[in-house]
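This part of the workshop introduces the protein records we will be handling. A record pairs a protein's sequence with a compact description of its fold. Comparing a sequence with its tokens is the quickest way to learn the format. The record below serves as our worked example for the rest of this section:
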Amino acid sequence: MIQAPDLPGWAALLVALLVVAGAAITLVGSFGLLRLKSFYERVHSPTLGTTAGTALIILGSMLCFSVVQTKPLVHELLIALLVTLTTPVTLMMLVRAAIYRDRTSGSEAVPPADGAPTDS
């Protein structure tokens, strides 16, 4: 069942802009996987792109279904809450595991510990 014909033009345009902007931000975040050199640099850009991109896509979804069903729909906020909470936690767990692995293997690419002097 496609309800797109019931969507007014102004809402369709706004939904399209939000979804395309969210997809573009997510795509730009994923380019960081290709462009950045080390794991510790690469891990940040997809995380930020996922959070910001998902927020815009969810706003577009909320607008679309709220206009079509003529009542505010907020169940997408649960999705936004879960993505916003789990993405940074996953980032921290991945980085901590990588730091532990690199420190135990004696790798030179490990970021310094908190409070440790850096070679500047």
In short: The chain has a mean pLDDT of 82. Helices lie at 9-35, 39-42, 44-68, 76-105. The first helix runs from residue 9 to 35.
